[in-house]
Design a protein that fits this description.
267 residues, alpha/beta, two-stranded parallel sheet, globular, binds (dimethyl-lambda~4~-sulfanyl)acetic acid
């Protein structure tokens, strides 16, 4: 089908997520880079996006979403990324853990555990899929923690337990970060911390770590996805390291759509 019919079939709309997400900025960049003048990016939330995806997929209707890996949608549906020859979405990304300045001095044990935190797409995926299949996030995370003591020992080895120190983790309700934050909450609680988690949008998440109202976040996507935030708050946070490599953002469509590149969306 011609490119125009693709645009008409989705009313020239790309189904996005929360407006502050880096993938939304990258998509606006793609709309400019590929001169998709008739196209609009619709913001909403991760949950609204996956609901729209399910509705379209079950009816085998066209849909174009802002998608990312790791995410359970690739296990549930036959999806594909649209090629991005202009590189609007960057290349391979990483998930980083960030902490407020002063964290190492105030909460050295947590600083060490958060710096050690790293796991694979498959490990995160087990939790995301359990949640997607109806398990409560805290239960899915606890089940994973119970089954992966050896992995968690790599993060906590040599770290002394604390006695009720308080720590606050900020995160955004992306399925990937719901999984990681619930796991880290349990790990830190098992190490003696009183953990609170606060779910906010991406901008407020970075702001909270930078102004110290949150101690850390597991939800920093770098180097490109959150470049605007990391530049804005340069010097006001500490990068505690990479928790996952090989992650990716882009435009994602069901495999039944006969387009392969973002260029196919041009008139
Ligand atoms: C939706 S990705 C997890 C992160 C981002 O786009 O900011």
């Amino acid at each position: 089908a011609g490119a125009g019919s693709v645009g008409e079939s989705v009313k020239y709309k790309i189904t996005g997520i929360d407006p502050g997400a880096g993938i939304m900025e990258a998509t606006e960049r793609a709309i400019t880079d590929y001169e998709l003048d008739k196209w609009d990016l619709v913001s909403g939330s991760g949950a609204a996006m996956t609901a729209a995806l399910k509705k379209a997929y079950d009816a085998e209707k066209p849909i174009i979403i802002t998608g990312w890996t790791p995410h359970w949608k690739f296990a549930k549906y036959d999806l594909k990324y649209l090629e991005d020859p202009k590189g609007s979405y960057g290349g391979e990304e990483e998930i980083h853990t960030i902490g407020r300045t002063g964290l190492q001095e105030d909460l050295p044990e947590a600083h060490q555990i958060l710096s050690n935190f790293s796991w694979s797409e498959e490990e995160m995926g087990e939790i995301m899929i359990a949640i997607q299949e109806g398990e409560k996030p805290e239960v899915a995370a606890q089940n994973w923690v119970d089954a992966n003591a050896d992995k968690i020992a790599l993060w906590t080895d040599g770290v002394e337990k604390v006695d009720g120190d308080e720590i606050k983790l900020a995160y955004v309700a992306w399925d990937s970060e719901i999984a990681s934050t619930n796991v880290m909450k349990i790990v830190l609680e098992d190490m003696g911390y009183k953990v609170t988690t606060v779910q906010v949008e991406a901008g407020p998440m970075w702001t909270a770590v930078a102004d110290g109202s949150a101690d850390a976040s597991l939800a920093a996507w770098l180097p490109l996805t959150h470049a605007t935030y990391s530049e804005k708050f340069d010097g006001k946070f500490e990068d505690l390291g990479v928790s996952m490599t090989g992650v990716k953002i882009g435009l994602v469509v069901p495999a039944y759509m006969d387009i392969t590149s973002i260029e196919d969306l041009q008139e």
